[in-house]
Design brief:
It contains two helices and no strands. The longest helix is centred in the N-terminal third of the chain and has 38 residues, at 2-39. The protein has helices at residues 2-39, 42-66. By secondary structure, it is an all-alpha fold. The two termini are 16 Å apart.
């Protein structure tokens, strides 16, 4: 019983960590996109796209890892 509870607590902590990291990626990506459009700099816009891709991959990883019944 204690092991099942510890796994649930670990999943909740992992979920919060994934959500926090994804939120940080979205905020940083938005900042880089705004700066890139403001300065008309394609390098900043491409960095914003990379952060968007990273947050999308993290979202897929979160969905795959957290809802796996065998973990």
């Amino acid at each position: 019983m204690l092991i099942i509870y510890q796994k649930r607590v670990l999943k909740v902590k992992l979920y919060i960590t994934f959500k926090t990291i994804m939120s940080v990626f979205v905020v940083i990506g938005t900042v880089f996109l705004a700066l890139g459009v403001y300065h008309l700099d394609s390098a900043l816009i491409s960095i914003a796209c990379l952060f968007a891709i990273a947050s999308f991959i993290l979202r897929l990883e979160m969905k795959d890892h957290l809802f796996d019944p065998f973990v």
